[in-house]
Amino acid sequence: MSYPKISKDPHSMPVKPNLESYDQVRRSFSWQEAVSEVELSGLGDGKVNIAHQALDRHIGTPTEDRVALRFLSKEPGAAPEDITYHALWERANRFANALTSLGLKKGDRVYGLSGRTPDLYMALLGTLKAGCVFSPLFSAFGPEPIRARMEIGEATAIVTTSRLYRKKLAGWIQELPSLRYVLLFDELEDEPYRTKSLAPLLERCGTTFDTEPMQPEDMALLHFTSGTTGRPKGAVHVHEAVVAHMKTAAFALDLHPDDVYWCTADPGWVTGTSYGMIAPLCHGVTMIVDEAEFDAERWYGTLQDQGVTVWYTAPTAIRMLMKYGKELADRYDLSSLRFLASVGEPLNPEAVVWGLETLGLPFHDNWWQTETGGIMIANYASMDIKPGSMGRPMPGIEAAIAHRTDDGMTLIEAPNETGELVLKSGWPSMFRGYLHEEERYRKAFVGDWYFTGDLAFKDEDGYFWFVGRADDVIKSSGHLIGPFEVESVLLEHPAVAEAGVIGIPDDIGGEVVKAFVALKPNYEPGDALLKEIMGLARKRLGPAVAPKSLEFRESLPKTRSGKIMRRLLKARELGLPEGDTSTLEDSGR
Ligand code: ATP
Ligand code: MG
């Protein structure tokens, strides 16, 4: 089966897409202009602050009365809680005042360890307002990964809950030399030294605050990568990044001010902040903040009951919904949806088409990384979708395929040739370094070109296709095999829910392909099914690329951001050390 292009007729869309024509906007767009636009609407004198763009700017405009956050608590039966832009602004101001009253200064590092709650939004925005740096942590991290990240970032303070404090911080946090405060959203009996409940403190603080005017290049966010390929890196992002958050959300997510927008990413990783907090607030939309974890019925219920118009989610979630089938989706009225997007992992063509058939809309895949701070390559609202492709570069982004050479690099001009995906430096949300890892940062560049570590090719129409991470690519009998291509074919089999593919050493071929497969409910592993899936793969991919062996698993190892950890499948297969598993969520045994 091959996938036809999904054509978009802009005139049939409920609202006009932000991109009239991809090429037209690409030609006329410049980051320089976008940056000066923001600086002019900013704090004067070329100063900016992410929180000013996200909140302050709306105060005194009709947007201030709009609902910024609609919070859906995980407590059963709890009613949704609405927080307007004005109310969120006041809360963020109180938080900024609280930090200042404790003596925190510009540049101090404030870590956030909490689930997805309005308090976390207040903390992020208040921290930025005070000129401090915010670093989000996954609330599901254990003590070790938390400590490692706080040490790298020399944390001044951490905001969390008493439950997470007791479970993950008590016992060691006081030893962290840089740490001055543990701030609690709720209360703790017998608060240890320098542990403070925020409620009484915020109560005493005023509801206005003069947002700190920052240099565009001042550090604002410290984001740790997902750790899919190894030890997580701390990527440094600056205040000017907000320009990219705003623009890319308009282009790639088609955000309009009257949208009800839901980003399902955890706030502990970059999508959860760039597109789950900052960008939507900049656009004045109403955001759904759901505290609960994935649950197919709850999710469909939220899409329906909240009238979600724009939905940004991830392939793992989409594959889980696919596992429950169309019957479940058909029980809900999802007619308010008008734009679906996905990020985090390659989106299998099967999933794009499933969206169209089941939800009435295709998923728009887009590609980016913690390092890029914002979406770089996307299938736009106004653009034809090629299922399986990441799309085309954002306006202002120059992407190319290249090889490293002994003395530099060569750009590959020919279409359909695989190489490393590279980006020309110079957009606002580009990371400015890996904290304390100068050498690792330097190695990611050849001249102006940033090497992403992902392999891809570009087709005749300028669409980019993900092949695999450079580390995951399999070299078999002279072929370069991308795990994504093989996994996508395995997913075409109706029994397959998840697939992960690795290369294992082979005397003759160098490496051969081995597949791991998790099945949908109602399917039992067995020889007949194994033969059937392997047969499909051979027929579709040819014997050189198809897996030589296949094993069924209950589930596959995944990071907390939902990425399949192929390196772990491989290490276990070969009996090698597992390496850094601090971000492992589903151990997949
Ligand atoms: P680490 O760098 O620590 O190994 P990571 O690369 O998984 O972790 P992130 O920055 O969260 O950390 O993820 C970015 C990576 O996710 C990309 O480099 C790419 O490999 C993958 N990715 C994200 N979106 C897509 C997409 N749409 N298609 C294919 N791959 C994607
Ligand atoms: Mg990476």
What is the CATH topology assignment of the largest domain? Rossmann fold
**Overall geometric form:** globular
Number of strands: 29
* Helix proportion range: 25-40%
What small molecules does this complex bind? adenosine-5'-triphosphate, magnesium ion
Question: In CATH, what is the class of the largest domain?
Answer: Alpha Beta
Q: How many domains comprise the coordinates?
A: 2
- Radius of gyration from the CA trace? 24 Å
Strand percent estimate = 15-25%
Beginning-to-end CA distance, first to last residue: 32 Å
CATH architecture of the largest domain: 3-Layer(aba) Sandwich
Say which CATH homologous superfamily of the largest domain is assigned: ANL, N-terminal domain
EC number: 6.2.1.1
Protein name: acetate--CoA ligase
Organism: Saccharospirillum salsuginis
Keywords: Acetylation, ATP-binding, Ligase, Nucleotide-binding
Can you walk me through this structure?
By secondary structure, this protein is α/β, with parallel strands linked by helices. It has a nine-stranded mixed beta sheet with strand order 2-1-11-10-12-13-14-15-16. Strands 17, 18, 19, 20, 21 and 22 form a six-stranded antiparallel beta sheet that branches. Strands 4-3-5-6-7 form a five-stranded parallel beta sheet, with helices on both faces. The radius of gyration is 24 Å and the shape is globular. The protein starts with 21 loop residues before the first helix and ends with a strand. Adenosine-5'-triphosphate binds next to strand 14, strand 21 and strand 22. Magnesium ion (MG) is lined by residues 225, 229, 369, 453.
